[in-house]
TrEMBL record:
InterPro entries: HAD-like_sf, HAD-SF_hydro_IIIA, HAD_sf, Heptose_bisP_phosphatase, Histidinol-phos
Active-site annotation: D10 (nucleophile), D12 (proton donor)
Gene3D superfamilies: HAD superfamily/HAD-like (3.40.50.1000)
Pfam (any one): Hydrolase_like
Transmembrane segments: none
Main location (coarse class): cytoplasm
Lineage of producing organism: Bacteria, Pseudomonadati, Bacteroidota, Chitinophagia, Chitinophagales
Highest taxon listed in the record's lineage: Bacteria
Cofactor(s) required for function per UniProt: Mg(2+); Zn(2+)
Gene Ontology biological process terms from the UniProt entry: carbohydrate metabolic process
Organism of origin: Chitinophaga agrisoli
Family note: Belongs to the gmhB family.
Any one Gene Ontology cellular component term annotated for this protein: cytoplasm
Entry protein name: D,D-heptose 1,7-bisphosphate phosphatase
Length: 177
């Protein structure tokens, strides 16, 4: 069904466990969520392109440098690759201001991905995230949205911004086999 589709993945709360009221500021604070390393190779078989779009306000707040973020991401990508998965490119928004054009739900990171990979078709894309801002980001662009209730289990489904809801990325990867 999703062959030649693009998968847009949020990071915190989808790929790794979100740290309540804080940020992942070093690799030793980064924990892959259950089943993610097993899910990514399955998703890689289905999706022609997999990109990550992550708000990282901790950079704008001066808690983490871009270099430090990139170190964390390189280690994350190494682990993903060792397990047979892939993430083709990572986009992050360092800005603090909610109105920043790169900060989800604004579409800047999707536009950057489309610029890098012109064959991306948003109407043949899935956005997986754990916030309504992720769902809004996807819906505005005509994507199919998948909600992961890792940090907001109280958000009920059906919901106008959600096309599907799975408890974690592993269950999503199983559902599309
Ligand atoms: Mg998140």
């Amino acid at each position: 069904m999703y062959k030649n589709w693009t998968l847009f993945l949020d990071r915190d709360g989808v790929i790794n466990d979100e740290i309540p009221d804080s940020y992942v500021l070093s690799w030793d604070m980064f924990r892959f969520s259950n089943g993610v390393l097993e899910a990514l190779p399955l998703l890689a078989q289905h999706f022609g392109r997999i990109v990550m779009v992550t708000n990282q306000r901790c950079i704008g707040r001066g808690l983490l440098t871009v270099n430090e973020l990139e170190t964390i991401h390189q280690k994350m990508l190494d682990q993903v690759a060792q397990h047979g998965g892939r993430i083709d490119k990572i986009y992050f928004c360092p800005d603090v201001d909610n109105s920043s054009p790169c900060r989800k739900p604004q579409s800047g990171m999707a536009m950057a991905a489309k610029h890098d990979f012109p064959d991306i078709d948003f109407t043949r894309s899935v956005m997986v995230g754990n916030t309504l801002s992720d769902m809004e980001f996807g819906k505005q662009l005509g994507m199919t949205t998948v909600f992961i209730p890792s940090t907001k289990p109280q958000l009920a489904f059906p919901h106008p911004l959600m096309d599907a809801r799975f408890n974690d990325l592993w269950l999503f990867s199983q559902a599309i086999q």
